[in-house]
Write a structure and sequence with these properties.
The structure is a single chain. A hairpin with a 6-residue loop joins strand 3 and strand 4. This protein has 20 helices and eleven strands. It is elongated. The strands form three sheets. A seven-stranded mixed β-sheet has the order 3-4-5-2-1-8-9. Strands 6-7 form a two-stranded antiparallel ribbon. It is an alpha+beta fold. The longest helix has 22 residues. Helix 12 packs across helix 14, helix 14 packs across helix 16 and helix 15 crosses helix 19.
């Protein structure tokens, strides 16, 4: 029986990155021997065991044979005669097919260390094409290591395109697609994940609403990059710089989905694309089974992000209506999330990446002014039932009006605020 450290721990150790989880492979062992040694079996489809003390995962060396569609359509063979090289051959990328023995010696039959040095994501064998989940995994690794200048090997790109063209991605479950997407959104460069998927055709299959934005023009005055798909990925990249929250980043990805619905005769303008995008967000989230809290924020961002761009000219009552609409009184974190996504939208444009975004600051200040109204004082004043809410709204509008008179007095001419549409704030907040 021999034990080897494998997978991400070896890969990240060689890259000088922090090692979080350790996975081990056992060669020459049987399930019964593992159980007798105190290991707890947890894998049903293939033998994986938990160490009795460290609780780290130890898997028996195994081979896999394709038996059906999707990433679960495999027959696993684990036996003491399976070699380490055979086990490593079934892995997705060469950089993940490196093992380290107890003496510090590397076992690298597929050139993983050389590919690490070349910053190359390359598949181990043609068996890569048997598992459609690997298309998403490669895209996620590309996003995770983009800051280290990793690229995908041409032959692996071709294989991913072929897998997509053959319809393999249709066999992925929504849960697995979202899990890979969530992990990618948490990476340093999540926009790379979606660009890789677009390059191999997978974006149109899995994120059709996002893919439809490419080729849709926006006014050059506000969008020098012109293409809405390009702007979307720029916005996501900016959101990743502003916040680590997956909620914020996903909302940045989906904020302009409504623009894909604009009839071509109206291009490059997209009147009312915000409210129109809410249904698109709902459709995407329902299909991928996106968690409700992430979905709800994305819908609100799609509907109201442009409104926040016009904040210097909004009436106090409109601001209070906005806080009502996003349920800020019960979920105050949404104010900050809305400010960040709108800032990402404004700065996610060619030439505007380093621009200041005063609207975000003003939104936070307006929220503090509205929050200063005390419910206890309203109740103590004798208001009851529905009167309490009405009086709270009246006082909040008054507080915001006082703040606004100090913070952003109306100039003689129209303020030069970033607007991408011509609809009025009043029309946007109409109920």
């Amino acid at each position: 029986m021999k034990i080897y450290l494998v997978g991400g721990a070896v890969r990240d150790g060689l890259l000088g990155l922090p090692v979080k989880d350790k996975d081990w492979v056992m060669v020459g062992a049987t399930p019964q021997e593992m159980i007798e040694a105190g290991y707890q079996q947890v894998g049903r489809d293939f033998p994986v065991f938990l160490h009795p003390e460290s609780r780290e995962e130890y898997a028996l060396a195994r081979t896999e044979r394709k038996s059906g569609h999707g990433y679960t359509g495999f027959v696993c063979h684990a036996d003491p005669d399976v070699t380490l090289e055979q086990d490593l051959q079934r892995r997705d990328l060469t950089i993940n097919a490196i093992a380290l023995d107890s003496h510090g010696n590397y076992v690298d039959p597929w050139g993983g260390r050389a590919d690490l040095n070349k910053r190359l994501l390359r598949h181990v064998s043609p068996a890569f094409s048997e598992d459609p989940l690997r298309v998403l995994r490669v895209a996620r690794f590309a996003a995770r290591y983009a800051h280290l200048n990793f690229r995908i090997a041409d032959e692996t790109q071709a294989l991913m395109r072929d897998m997509t063209a053959r319809g393999e991605l249709a066999h992925l479950t929504p849960e697995r697609v979202w899990k890979e997407t969530e992990n990618a959104l948490a990476s340093r460069n999540p926009q790379v994940f979606f660009q890789v998927l677009r390059d191999c055709g997978a974006l149109a299959v899995l994120f059709a609403e996002v893919d439809a934005l490419f080729g849709v023009p926006a006014p050059e005055k506000w969008h020098p990059e012109i293409d809405t798909g390009v702007h979307t990925l720029m916005t996501l990249a900016m959101a990743a710089r502003l916040s680590p929250q997956v909620d914020v980043r996903f909302s940045a990805l989906t904020h302009d989905l409504g623009k894909a619905l604009t009839p071509k005769r109206f291009w490059p303008r997209h009147h009312g694309h915000g409210p129109a995008g809410v249904k698109q967000v709902e459709q995407l989230c329902q299909r991928l089974r996106v968690p409700n809290d992430i979905r709800d924020l994305a819908k609100l961002v799609a509907e109201y992000h442009d409104l926040i761009h016009t904040l210097p000219i909004l009436q106090p009552k409109t601001l209070v209506k906005l806080f009502d609409a996003i349920d800020a009184w019960r979920k105050p974190q949404r104010v900050e999330q809305m400010a960040l996504t709108s800032e990402a939208d404004a700065r996610g444009r060619t030439g505007f990446e380093a621009s200041d975004y005063p609207q975000g600051r003003l939104l936070r200040e307006a929220w503090r002014a509205a929050q200063s109204v005390c419910t206890k004082e309203v109740v103590s004043a004798g208001f009851k039932g529905a009167e309490i809410r009405e009086e709270m709204t009246r006082r909040r509008i008054h507080a915001v009006a006082q703040w606004k008179a100090r913070a952003c007095p109306q100039p003689a001419g129209r303020p030069d605020v970033y607007r991408k549409t011509t609809y009025t704030a009043a029309a946007t907040m109409k109920r």
